[in-house]
Design brief:
The structure holds two protein chains of two kinds. By secondary structure, chain A is of the alpha/beta class. Chain A is 36% helix and 15% strand. In chain B, strand 3 and strand 4 form a beta hairpin. The chains are: A alpha/beta, B alpha+beta.
């Protein structure tokens, strides 16, 4: 299949406007004849479900949590970018577009990114109208801060809980539509497969997580908004339930998977303390505005940090990047922290961390100011580590945080399966090889509120409804396959728990497919992942039966998909013989150990096509053309 | 490890909604004080699964205190002995070697047990559905700075809006009242100009739904606020009462 991005021709500033006009519309009276399924109720899913219902479509929304309000968008701390230029500091749609393309290391589509920047302002208007309590100045206007190294203040925030407030806004809008009967909500339902009939998506099969019933639902279009796949690494900042199952099953049904190796490692997380560790907690990026990262110069120096004199500390980011210092992008900060730990300079009881020190800022600004700026983060740190960051430096280490890769989508956010759309983190479209801070919330809401309501109409206007029911043989066939798969997992009755095998997978992924990668390591990872997959299907122990609430079974199903996806992540990383954004190949670096991109050979989106179990996926390339921005080498020296 | 703790657990086990539940004893050895409470539960479940027994079901997701999934009633208190946090943020260093720990679900008539420690909190969704929103469709919103909002009003709204919908307030209340939850939602919108056009309709609809769901009456014991992981203030209950009477009296005229 030839990948057609469908980015409209013409000037950047007019692409979306022209496209909106050229798309076909569904007559208002006909909208209720169409059934749309939305899987996932995070920012992208909830905003899409609410907006489509408002237009008059029949919407069915599904989530695996007990309520639509709990999706992991809720955990986003920092904020949401928008090119409002309220601060009069030179921001513009074009600047946000430019920063995002550059930050993504020139591996995203110009057309998509420009649209995102364009829509960013509408998102803030919409959220304020919904009653989202963004931070304000004394005069009553909205406050902004600069975030993630941006040179303008364009980030809107609601204390350290921006994701929560935006999600509740979308959730409220969704609940309003549920109350109006326009959306039917299915919580505690996990999508386990898609049903494709005559080449189009026609529904999904879910497992009712309370009683194990396999339930089929028919639709005219299906939207996946199921988040990222960071939990392939076992430990990540994702919620425990975050998984790849929906998009992986879609991939197996024919949707291409794009750039799976583009994963983002966040530099400032609380380090692992023991083997029982179940997740990692992010400390907001904003801490790097005032915190200084350092390690002892001497790896053998085991003194308490406050006893180590200034002259015996290595402020490694300030030393290597004098102009950006502690504010280098996420990938650069993460890689340097790893380098320090690998050199044996790691600190803390498990020697797997670096210091993030606020002593200077405390002296300069006083404790009150630090409490005001970071109080809740310092409290959270103390809660988890039992150490007081006002007295001793924080210990931090990078952790998997976000996945830029995901299902390939065209400009309409449609996957390679007609009628199947992918929104938010689970698509690949806007962040290239690296996402900038405060841009995930922006993308999720742009996709859900302002893009899909238009683009889905273009598909449905050209689509003929029929009387399909779940009695169709294809639904029965898919249900049977799912049942067999569940029975197979339950019948193994081996000796290893799902978590044990997931930890094995996570260790391999972190060691060889993590912050820095090389061909030897990636090949080794591919072999190890195959072995772990075999181990799973031979030795896993899943307790209980299907016909009950069974969390062990839920986890097993998700892990079985991570075990397949992980191999594709490693294959993609192996094939991409360059370093860009979050993907760092040790073979491809400058003399100063910086990422070396190869625009001549790798300025493309790698879209992988499933070819069957145990067969290599087939690579398709979507060439990236830069008409408006000249790719340049990033430099933060 | 060395400083690991030995613990006696008494955990509520209940097969499904209709089954009769009971407390079951478990012993755990060598639990690190740095573990979170839910990681301790993971350790127990790993042992149970390996023994071929049914692991303990409990709701959890983000494990950083914001999603509101986790809902354990620990030693008689929702979210355990430490104030201002959700269960997932509780660490084992809060306990001592040899402690007996009782773990039960959040109990309320409106929160039926689904299995073990998992309860059905969909009543909260239905309360929001009744009126916990601003009726604006997507598109057509005016510029975000076109309406000025005093900083202190926005801060007040944010204090209320922080509610994570976990239900600890209900579990803590001797009447199983949901007034803190409803109050938080009503106050959040009552303090913002965007919430004003519907303030009357909202408070009546949400309070009515709260009653229909079987939550008890508020008698101002303040247990809800004391146990709230986000420390939502009793002020929100005062506000919801004010909103309610203001509207109800107006309607009577």
């Amino acid at each position: 299949m030839n990948l057609v991005s469908k980015v409209p021709a013409g000037p950047l500033t007019e692409k979306w406007t022209n496209h909106k006009f050229s798309m076909k519309l569904v007559n208002p009276a006909n909208k209720r004849k169409y059934n749309i399924i939305v899987v996932g109720t995070g920012l992208a899913g909830a905003s899409a479900a609410a907006s489509l219902a408002e237009l008059g479509y029949n919407v069915q929304a599904f989530c695996f949590q007990d309520s639509a309000r709990r999706a992991h968008s809720i955990a986003a701390q920092g904020g949401i970018n928008a090119s409002k230029n309220y601060q009069n500091d030179g921001d513009s749609v074009y600047r946000l577009f430019y920063d995002t393309v550059k930050g993504g290391d020139y591996r995203s589509r110009e057309g998509n990114v420009y649209r995102l920047a364009e829509l960013s302002a509408n998102i803030i208007d919409q959220c304020v109208a919904q009653g989202v309590p963004f931070a304000r100045e004394y005069g009553g206007l909205l406050d902004n801060r600069s975030f993630g190294g941006a040179q303008v203040s364009r980030t809107f925030y609601a204390r350290g809980q921006t994701g929560q407030q935006l999600l509740l806004g979308a959730y409220n809008a969704l609940m309003r539509q549920v109350g109006l009967g326009q959306v039917k909500m299915y919580p505690r339902h996990e999508m386990l497969d898609l049903v494709i009939i005559d080449g189009k998506v026609r529904g999904i099969v879910t497992r009712n997580m309370i009683n194990g019933d396999l339930e089929s639902y028919v639709a005219d279009a299906v939207i996946l908004a199921t988040g990222g796949y960071g939990n392939a690494y076992y430990l990540s900042t994702n919620a425990k339930g975050c998984n790849t199952t929906a998009i992986w099953r879609a991939y197996r049904r024919g949707a291409y998977f794009a750039n799976p190796c583009f994963t983002q490692i966040h530099p400032t997380c609380i380090p692992v303390t023991g083997h029982y560790q179940s997740k990692l907690t992010l400390m907001s990026e904003s801490l790097r505005n005032d915190g200084r990262m350092w390690v002892p110069k001497d790896p053998k120096d085991k003194r308490s940090p406050v006893q180590i004199p200034e002259s015996e500390r290595d402020y490694f980011l300030e030393r290597k990047y004098p102009s950006f210092g502690n504010l280098v992008p996420r990938d650069v900060a993460s890689r340097n922290a790893k380098e320090m730990v690998d050199e044996g300079k790691g600190v803390g009881p498990t020697q797997n961390a670096v210091y993030l020190d606020f002593a200077d800022a405390l002296n300069r600004l006083g404790k009150d100011k630090i409490v005001e700026k970071y109080g809740n983060l310092f409290d959270m740190y103390k809660l988890i580590t039992a150490e007081d960051p006002y007295e001793v430096p924080m210990r931090i280490y990078p952790a998997v945080h976000y996945t830029m890769g995901g299902l390939w989508v065209d400009y309409n956010l449609m996957t390679t399966i007609p009628g199947l759309y992918s929104l938010g983190e689970c698509n690949f479209s806007d962040h290239g090889a690296n996402r900038l801070g405060a841009s995930a919330l922006m993308q999720g809401l742009a996709d859900g509120y302002f893009i899909i309501p238009y683009t889905i109409g273009d598909y449905l206007a050209q689509y003929k409804t029929d009387k399909l029911t779940t009695e169709h043989e294809e639904f029965k066939k898919v249900e049977k396959e799912i049942k067999e798969n569940i029975d197979r997992m339950l019948s193994i009755k081996g000796t290893k728990t799902v978590d044990e095998i997931h930890r094995d997978l996570g260790t391999v992924m972190w060691d060889y497919v993590g912050m820095s990668r090389n061909a030897g390591g990636l090949k080794k990872a591919i072999n190890r992942i195959k072995e772990i997959r075999e181990d799973f299907w031979k030795n896993v122990i899943v307790s209980g039966i299907n016909e009950e609430l069974n969390q062990s079974l839920e986890k097993a199903g998700r892990l079985s998909d991570f075990l397949e996806l992980s191999e594709l992540i490693a294959e993609d990383a192996l094939h991409r013989e360059e370093s860009c954004g979050g993907h760092f190949r040790e073979e491809h670096q400058t003399e100063e150990n910086e990422a070396k991109r190869d625009d001549d050979n790798f300025a493309y989106v790698a879209a992988w096509e499933y070819k069957g179990a145990d067969r290599k996926a087939e690579l398709h390339k979507e060439e990236l053309k830069f008409e408006f921005v000249q790719p340049s080498q990033r430099s933060y020296k | 490890m060395g400083n690991g703790m030995n613990l006696h657990l008494k955990i509520w086990r209940q097969k499904d909604r209709n089954a009769k539940g009971k407390l079951v004893s478990y012993e755990l050895q060598d639990i690190s004080p740095d573990m979170s409470f839910l990681e301790m539960m993971d350790v127990l479940n790993e042992i149970l699964i390996k023994k071929g027994e049914d692991p303990v079901a409990f709701d959890h997701d983000c494990r950083e205190g914001i999603c509101g999934c986790c809902s354990l009633f620990i030693n008689g208190r929702p979210h355990g002995p430490q104030e201002g946090i959700a269960t997932c943020q509780l660490h084992m260093r809060k306990f001592k070697d040899g402690d007996t720990i009782y773990v039960e679900p959040f109990r309320a008539k409106a929160f039926p047990v689904i299995k073990d420690l998992i309860v059905d909190r969909s009543a909260f969704d239905r309360i929001v559905m009744a009126g916990g929103f601003v009726s604006v469709n997507t598109g057509g919103a005016p510029d975000a700075n076109s309406v000025l909002i005093p900083k202190n009003e926005q801060e007040w709204a944010m204090d209320a809006a922080q509610c994570i919908g976990c239900g600890a307030c209900v579990a803590a209340c001797k009447n199983a009242s949901a007034m803190l939850f409803v109050g938080a939602k009503v106050s959040h919108f009552a303090r913002l100009p965007q919430g004003h056009p519907e303030r009357e309709r909202r408070v009546l609809a949400m309070v009515k739904q709260m009653q229909l769901e079987g939550f008890g009456t508020c008698t101002n014991t303040e247990a809800c606020s004391a146990e709230c992981p986000k420390q939502i203030s009793m002020d929100v209950i005062a506000q919801v009462r004010r909103e309610y009477y203001r509207t109800a009296l107006k309607k009577e005229k």
